Amino acid sequence: MTMDQTQRSPGGCGGLTPEQVRVLREHGTERPGSSPLNDEKRPGEYRCAGCGAPLFSSTAKYDSGSGWPSFMQSLPGAVATTTDTSHGMTRTEVHCARCNGHLGHVFPDGPPPTGLRYCMNGIVLQFVARDGGVGA
């Protein structure tokens, strides 16, 4: 990746593509069904693409049918939330607790035992397989 394809993000969160900046820093959303992480089934961990902080375990991932990678819970202390009133609705926005990057939203319609659906933008997640392999 060339220097003109990445941007050093605020807060020292590393090099990001323009699309990652749009989602993480400008609260954008990727197209549903566009993330290769939707089909990721290996055991491992999902980290923030901005700063590398661990966010979700693969054991919490499930197929919600929403078109975005979905999780029933985050790792303890990994994410923070704020109220989002954009687009004429009230939602709970999810941010990386370390770099405050926008990850997606959490909804109260997930499976037991939490009843939560963390609907995340895959472009701002980095998957690290338990065997050490890195995915999308």
UniProtKB/TrEMBL annotation:
Which chemical reaction does it catalyze?
L-methionyl-[protein] + [thioredoxin]-disulfide + H2O = L-methionyl-(R)-S-oxide-[protein] + [thioredoxin]-dithiol
EC numbers, comma separated: 1.8.4.12
* UniProt keywords, alphabetically: Oxidoreductase
Recorded hits in InterPro entries, A to Z, give: Met_Sox_Rdtase_MsrB, Met_Sox_Rdtase_MsrB_dom, Mss4-like_sf
- For the MsrB domain, which residue ranges apply? 9-130
GO molecular function, a single term: peptide-methionine (R)-S-oxide reductase activity
Give the matching SUPFAM superfamilies: Mss4-like
GO cellular component annotations of the record: cytoplasm
Which Pfam families does the annotation name?
A: SelR
Which is a GO BP term held by this UniProt record?
protein repair
Q: Is Glycoprotein found in the keyword set? A: no
Which PANTHER family does the annotation name? METHIONINE SULFOXIDE REDUCTASE, PEPTIDE-METHIONINE (R)-S-OXIDE REDUCTASE
This protein's name: peptide-methionine (R)-S-oxide reductase
Source species of the chain? Novacetimonas hansenii ATCC 23769
